[in-house]
Amino acid sequence: MSYDLDELGLLDDEEIELDHAALTLSALDHEGVDLDPYLDLLDEIADRLEEVAEGADTLEARGAALKQVLADEFGFIGDAAGYDAPVNADLIRVIDRRQGLPVSLSILYVSAARRMGWSAWALNTPGHVLVRLGKDRFVLLDPFHGGKPVSRGELDAIVRQFAGPGAELRPEYLAPIPNRAVLVRLLTNQASRAAQAGDGARALVLHERMAQIAPEYPDVWWALVQTQLGQGDSTGARSSLHAMLEITRDDNYRKVANALLEKLAAG
To answer: Which of 148, 192, 219, 264 has its CA 20 to 30 A from that of 253?
Structure first.
């Protein structure tokens, strides 16, 4: 299935099919694209995983089945050589090239696992999204590195690499990311790369999409405001600030939003 963006913004988080939603977002940048071959491939992955995972009654066996199907057989791997290329956060191009970022590849792993009825989530690990299989007891997989299992020592090393040499593992690093937040993270990767390339108009489009699919996230509105102001759109920024005030009770966000509205009014 594919989604309308307004519909996607209204769905309960657990109703979102991550890979289908990510394809919908990707299709916005590929005018006239036929999504059916991509959806067919996702079905093919699910069918093959069902075959490979027959009798896989442990988390380790399920992780091994995901690795075999997605990495070994279908060839999905991280793009280490061209990590910052925008195509790595564009799911259509990720599927075409069989390469991507940790977050885009995690979407494929999580979605395939869920179609098997397994508990699976992308994780909020610093700088490098991992996949968690299982609830109380769990195993971690690294889709960027071919779906290999991640040990506690390796997880500690990832945390130190991205959060600093003295950083320690915190509970939130093992906490599942909501589906909507995964999609925001995917778009944020694209928006940050557009901004770094000096393409403010492209970054603005991406931040507008984030606000459309995650209208209850105040940080998304705040990022949109900053991008609108960077593009000289004070009218749009005021509108976004009012939208932000409507959805958040957070005192800090409300304080900065009201202060900025006063500044723009004095303008």
So the answer is: 192
**pLDDT tens digits, residue range 240-258?**
999 999 999 999 999 999 9
Class of domain 5-174: alpha beta
* Contact between residue 135 and residue 119 where contact means Cβ atoms under 8 Å apart: yes
Q: How far is CA 109 from CA 5, 83, 117, in A?
A: 23, 19, 13
Measured CA to CA in angstroms, residue 126 lies from 55, 117, 161, 170 at distances of 34, 27, 9, 10
100, 76 contact by CB (below 8 A) = yes
How is the chain split into domains, by residue range? 5-174, 179-266
108-166, pLDDT tens digit by residue? 999 999 999 999 999 988 888 999 999 989 999 999 999 999 998 888 888 888 778 88
The structural architecture, per CATH, of the domain 179-266 is: Alpha Horseshoe (1.25)
* Distance, CA of 162 to CA of 174 (rounded, Å): 15
Sequence-separated contacts (24+) of 93-97 with Cβ below 8 Å:
93/26, 95/38, 95/41
